[in-house]
Structures are given as C-alpha cells and as structure tokens.
Design goal:
The chain has 357 residues and is α+β, with helices and mostly antiparallel strands. Helix content is 24%, strand content 35%. The chain has two domains: 8-91 and 166-237, Rossmann fold (3-Layer(aba) Sandwich), CATH 3.40.50.300; 250-356, no CATH class. The strands form four sheets. A six-stranded mixed beta sheet has the order 6-7-8-3-9-10, sandwiched between helices.
C-alpha cells in the first residue's frame, strides 16, 4: 500500500471538508481525501452513499456546498463558491456509458482531447495511436464505435482518458454495463495499465472485487462519509467498525459479553471464547468471525449446524448456524457436508475482531 501523501508536491488531489447538499438532503458530510501521485483510490459503497457525487465534484460537473479541493496543486474548489470548470482541470474521465461519439472513428475519438488543446494533427494522431496501442486497440483505429463490442468501446474511452497523460483520471463505474467475466478481465487490465503509466486515479464502483483488484487504497463510503480508507488487506483484517464489516460481508457478527476472566460468551448460543479475555473492556460486545478464521476440524471446540452447502466449483461453502439459528457463519470446505449435520470447527482467535458496544 502506498503511504498517504504529506507534501503538496506529492499530492494529485487534496479534498478538505467537502460537503454537498441537495435542498435539505445532505449527500456528502465533510469529506477529507488525499491522493498521492501515481496512486489509485477506489470509492466503494452502496447506492446513495455519495461516491458518485464526490467524483463529480472532483470533475467539476457539480459544485460543492462547502470545502476545498486541489488537483495537482491547482485550486479547483474553495469555500467561497469558486468551482473551476471541467476543461480547466486537465483531468481525464471514463464514464459509465462510455460517452464516445458514434460519428467519429476510434482514432478521432481518442484524439479529441488533444484537438481541444489545439495540438497539431500529426502530434494528435501519433499520441492517439500510442494510447490505443497501450489498451490493445491499435488495429481498430480506423473503425467506428458502432462496430465494436462493449469491452472494446470501454477501452476506447480509457485510451481517450489517458491520451494527454493527465495528472488525474476519474472513473465513474466504467465496467458496470459489462458481464462479470469481461468486467473481471478489464478490471485487471485497467489496474495494470494505470500502474504502468504511473497515473493517479479515483475509481468509483459498487463492486468490491473490482475495487480490490484496481486500487491501492479503498475508501468505503457509507451515509455520505468515508467510513474507512485503507488497503484491501487492512480493510479485511482490521475493519474500523461494525458497519464496514457488514458492508464488506467479511464474516459473521455475533453479539455477546466480554469478561476479564472468561473471555467472550455469546448471548444466543453456547459459543465461548476464553482467549478473547483482555482484548477489550468488559461489557457488551460484538465479535466479527471472518471466513478465514474458522475451518472444519474434528478436534474443534465449536460445533455448528450446516444450514446450506454451496458448491463453488473448486470448493464448498458451508453456511452455518448455532443452536438452530442462522449466524452468518460461512466456512470454506474441501468436502461437502449434509444439511442439518453437525460440523466441529476450529477458530483462529487471532483473526477475530472485537467491537465493544
């Protein structure tokens, strides 16, 4: 994971206390976000969390109600109501609907930003062909968008966004219209390409796998705020709150009580975890049991009931309950298990996360 930038000369974007309201509805609540040079940050969250609104403020397509923002050291938003127009920000953008012109060839689509900057025709064509080559479409330069597949059109949009090698590229859910197999492949390609070019990018998505594939850091947005921003690995191993753990669907959340002498005891079942003694103050608590923290083990201290056995091609997922109640416990397994059977489990206490209530 890249470190959070500190010096102004190393910051691609710096947003401070950005807020946005539509009438009486507050969509963004004092967002702080710093993006380092060459860093990719994904804004991940459910519909209505404010991620697209924040992206559009960065693009200049919306004005902020308050706050400040700089892109590559240039002031683009401030609290006095100043909002630099999109064309003055020098950014690249890839939209969900591609936004490519059907009457222009692929080459002319990609070269269009350079045309707006009044570069000569020869230089425009040379740089546009180089951008197309980088996304694997050099052989389609003379085609028209209507003859391309959805994935190819998306690559044209990406080539156009990077042709001027801008200080910041913004992605507004660019793969959401594609099928999953193509989306996964393009996500990997986009992440690889951004790193090869050393470009800074903000990538909006509601797809967790996509965000984790592309980004150096992922900002989980909930209710108009950044609930946590960290590397994908840290988000999974150390979610900052119950809300983040629930959104990421890391594992089961079990309510109970912590005691200094006996550890954690579940309020709904016989689950007892003495090893958690001292992990947090005494009192009501909720523990997160990630999928990676449990495994079938004949010598396991916990026995759970199989509620459903899900085949996933290369493994099985056992959906488990305690005392006949669903808990959200999910355990990977190499072999299937009959529904309603009892499975002994080993728990890796070091992987558990405790949230005092």
């Amino acid at each position: 994971m890249k470190d959070v930038p500190t010096g102004l000369d190393r910051i691609a974007l710096c947003a401070t206390q950005i807020a946005k309201s539509f009438g009486d509805t507050q969509v963004l609540r004092n967002i702080d976000l710093g993006l380092g040079l060459g860093e990719v940050v994904a804004l991940l969250g459910p519909s209505g969390c404010g991620k697209t609104t924040l992206l559009r403020i960065a693009a200049g397509l919306l004005s902020a109600s308050s706050g400040q923002m700089q892109i590559a050291g240039q002031r683009v938003v401030d609290g006095s109501g100043f909002n630099a127009p999109p064309e003055a920000r020098g950014i690249g953008m890839v939209f969900q609907d591609y936004a490519i012109w059907p009457h222009l060839s692929v080459l002319d689509n990609v070269a269009f930003p350079l045309r707006m900057r009044k570069l000569g025709r020869n230089e425009r064509e040379t740089r546009a062909r180089r951008a197309l080559d980088r996304v694997g479409l050099a052989h389609l330069a003379d085609r028209f968008p209507g003859t391309l597949s959805g994935g190819q059109q998306q690559r044209v949009a990406l080539a156009r966004a990077i042709v001027a090698e801008p200080p910041l590229v913004l992605f507004d859910e660019p793969l959401s219209n594609l099928d999953r197999e193509l989306r996964e492949g393009l996500a990997l390609e986009i992440g690889t390409l951004l790193r090869e070019l050393g470009l800074s990018a903000i990538y909006v998505t509601h797809d967790q796998s996509e965000a984790f594939t592309i980004a150096d850091r992922v900002a989980v947005m909930l209710g108009g705020r950044i609930a946590q921003i960290d590397s994908p690995e840290t988000l999974f191993t150390a979610p900052a709150s119950v809300a983040v753990a629930q959104f990421l669907n890391i594992g089961a959340l079990v309510d109970g009580r912590l005691c200094a002498s006996t550890g954690f005891t579940c309020t709904r079942s016989q689950l007892s975890l003495p090893s958690l003694a001292g992990r947090a103050p005494e009192g009501p608590a909720r523990i997160l049991i990630p999928r990676t923290a449990i495994r079938p083990d004949p010598q396991g201290a916990l026995t759970a009931q199989v509620l459903r056995c899900q085949f996933q091609g290369d493994r099985y997922l056992l959906h488990l309950g305690l005392d006949g109640q669903s808990t959200g416990l999910v355990c990977p397994a190499d072999l299937p298990a009959p529904v309603n059977s009892q499975v002994p489990l080993a728990i890796d206490a070091d992987r558990l996360r405790v949230f005092p209530l």
